[in-house]
Amino acid sequence: MGIDAPRAPLDKSLLTKEISRYWRVSVVEVTGSTQDDLFQLASTGTAIPKTILASEFQSSGRGRLDRTFTAVPMSALTFSIYIEPKADKQEWPFLTLLAGLSVHEALQLLDPQTEINIKWPNDLLIGGKKFVGMIAQATSKGVVLGIGINVGMSEDELPVDNATSLAIEGFTELDRNVILATIINHFEINLEMWENDKSFLAEYRFASATIGSDVEVTLPDGKVLNSRAVDISNTGALILASGEEVTVGDVVHLR
């Protein structure tokens, strides 16, 4: 399937058949942001755990650090999920890394020949170019994870120069229904194992493009750190050779 493959719509009935019966999926044609919509429901106690909200087009999509996310209708896979983890709340920060790792592993299952790496904490890269971004927000009872994947975008549809898409990279599976179902099924397995105390640090380190790289990290207060990324902590913080542990920040890999 190449770049010119049809952009098939998301199919709720098909997705429901392919994922666990414990998940509830909704598909909307247009919304401002699946993340905002689902976070609002979760914050008011009206979202059921293991809810998936996907959209064909987001007019106000957003990612980490208040960045915007835009995509031509049906060219991207944009969705949010709500979970109530069976783990202590202080452990929840690692869920952002677990989500990134789960998407990474699911996509590698679909196409083992395409090398995909993770840029801390959960951006996915092919050849150093980003094609997946994520955002996580905690409520009193759970976490809403928002995921955006550039699937069928052509080069002139990319939001920024350092981005790419699965279609551009010749990925063998471009059906967003298959991709979404594979991600949900894989994340569900990883989440259950994590809730039962499995550590995913080794798997994350193996997939990381950040560990071992010289990096420039911009912290929320504007401070810039230049060092070498050497490891990940148990809670998902990026450990630098200079001694700092970064929990929130914008990472640039230095060449």
Description:
- Pfam families: BPL_C, BPL_LplA_LipB.
- Keywords: Ligase.
- One of its GO terms (cellular component) is cytoplasm.
- The strands form 3 sheets. The protein has a 7-stranded mixed beta sheet, sandwiched between helices.
- It is 24% helix and 30% strand.
- The protein folds into 2 domains: 193 residues, 2-Layer Sandwich (BirA Bifunctional Protein, domain 2), CATH 3.30.930; 44 residues, SH3 type barrels, CATH 2.30.30.
- The N terminus is likely disordered.
- The two termini are 33 Å apart.
- It is of the alpha+beta class.
Q: What portion of residues is helical?
A: 10-25%
Strand order of the largest sheet: 1-2-5-9-8-7-6
SSE pattern: HEHEEEEHEEEEHHEEEEE
What is the alpha-carbon Rg in Å? 17 Å
> What's the architecture of the largest domain, going by CATH?
2-Layer Sandwich
General shape: globular
Specify the CATH class of the largest domain: Alpha Beta
Structural class: alpha+beta
Q: What does the largest sheet look like?
A: 7 strands, mixed
| Total helical segments | 5
- Strand fraction: 25-35%
CATH topology of the largest domain: BirA Bifunctional Protein, domain 2
* Fourth CATH level, the homologous superfamily of the largest domain: Bira Bifunctional Protein, Domain 2
Distance between the termini: 33 Å
Mean pLDDT: 93
User: How many domains make up the 3D coordinates?
Assistant: 2
Q: How many β-strand stretches?
A: 14
Low-confidence stretches: 1-5
GO molecular function: biotin--[biotin carboxyl-carrier protein] ligase activity
GO cellular component, one term: cytoplasm
Domain BPL/LPL catalytic: 14-195
Keywords: Ligase
